[in-house]
Amino acid sequence: MDRQWFQHVLFNPEHWSIFRRSVRTNNDVEGWHHNLNTTVRYGGCSIYDLVPTLMTEAEIVAITVATDDLDRDVAT
Q: 4, 12, 29, 75: which has the fewest C-beta neighbours closer than 10 Å?
């Protein structure tokens, strides 16, 4: 068991945990996209509705970056 799980080349201990590593999935982007689609009713809006929504999103991003609040919100 020791040789298979602890000393095997594919399973080095530094690969066991992703704590404090950058996120390598697009789940955050997909969540944002779903939220945007819900806000603008899945393509059922005009450009006149979409532009103000995107401007609001841009303001939120600017505030988030300015306050350095870039941590993920994790549900507990």
A: 75
